[in-house]
Specification:
Chain B: This is KipI family sensor histidine kinase inhibitor. The complex is a heterodimer of chains A (287) and B (223). Chain A has 287 residues and is mostly beta strands. Chain A has three helices and 20 strands. The model of chain A has no long low-confidence stretch (mean pLDDT 94). The chains are: A mainly beta (287), B alpha+beta (223).
Amino acid sequence: MTAVEVIATGPLSTVQDLGRPGNAGIGVGVSGAADRGALRSANRIVGNPEDAACVEVTLGGFAARASAPLTIAVTGAPCPVTVDGRAAAPHSVVRVPAGAEFRLGTPGRGLRSYVAVRGGIAVAPVLGSRSTDVLAGLGPEILRPHTVLPVGPPPEEFPVVDSVPVRPLPTDTVSLRVVPGPRDDWFTTDALETLLGERYTVTSECDRVGMRLDGPELPRSGVGELPSEGMMPGALQVPPTGTPTLFLADHPVTGGYPVIAVVLGSDVDKAAQARPGMRLRFTPSRR
Amino acid sequence: MAATGSTGQMGETGAAPRVLPCGDAGLLVELSGLDEVLALHGALEDRPPAGVVDLVPAARTLLVRFDPLRTGPGEVERAVREAEPVPVQRKSGELVEVPVVYDGPDLADVAEHTGLSEPEVIAEHTATEWTVAFGGFAPGFGYLTGGSGRLDVPRRAESRTRVPTGAVGLAGTFSGVYPRSSPGGWQLIGHTDLAMWDVDRDPPALLRPGVRVRFVDVRGGGS
């Protein structure tokens, strides 16, 4: 059986696909790739179905050995890719001979890279998905050296492109479009203006669940408790401290602090590539 | 916008639900209470509108998540408003006994907030049968309703970054058990060793909507 043996993982590497929607009733969130567009793109390059499982690599440092000839692609945060020491291009079809080792260096910008293998990572699905949900502790274990990842049979489709063009990721400020609400009426009238007018810095408390932001406080207009309600990726939830948390893929299914605004789905991908220290700028979405 | 908080059912006999935006891929439907939430949830689960990918029921709201490439907020809102609510029967579900050691770090705060003594807090918590209303927060976490009403406490002002597995907590009039270690803002009054979630068990969640729960003080010993 074709397989990939993990040699090194960097700070965090996990298996991800597009998640497990439809299980909220038993408290199971969607999870899946933090940058869904990058995962889809990696799969398209190698001819996989868009939702095939890939390896999500946080800040590079992933290395693995191929048991048989493989076709791979690396997307997301652009990092140097080598195959047995020889440089290969990101966002393109990369051939890995049997027994060869491929490595991802540290990306110059962005946070999360995606390694698609033609055939997909074929670990056992849990509730319909191969994604590791780090908050829920569901799905495959976080990858470690010596983990052997089975690779599925190659799809019928062949790679049709050698590489895909990508827009460079920002290095300083990321612009994210938001829709105000659902709980903007829990805040003072100035709060939304503050959110849209100021910059918020990504703190080091930043993982697949979400990112705590630092910046001007968003004061509430009154006191009171919100009954817990459903949460989404991109939700800007504001605890009583007044500074927002931006939820990502492994956010809790429900939460009890009001959400002042929600980042558009396509822009959540951009948020997931923002590093600690970078600044976020929220702009109102035109709809 | 329609008034909320009025009693009665949605539909022709009562107030229309308030529908709030959630980015470009969700709508938060605000209803008058848990029964109305579960009735709408039942309706949308029976006949899922095109493009709807997940339904998240909670105490007073139903979050409807959709794929913005397949449908839009206008179409989803129309489907929500036209849905025929399916009234819920509060079934006499399976009864689960949860053994609890009442040694939580917030027990004293809860006592102070409710004006009860610590033993009285424990007595209130163990006196009534609770029912799982809905899931959420984490796999296997059930929001339990049916307390006496005297245990009505706010969440902690700052949530803990790490609440241990099995911690038994209170928030508002709900009780719940943390199925695994996670961040959390509930007031912790005790802990249990009973596994709330086991992915190798079928079903993996011990506390599913409709299951009845009785908490048992296992270190009470007449103190």
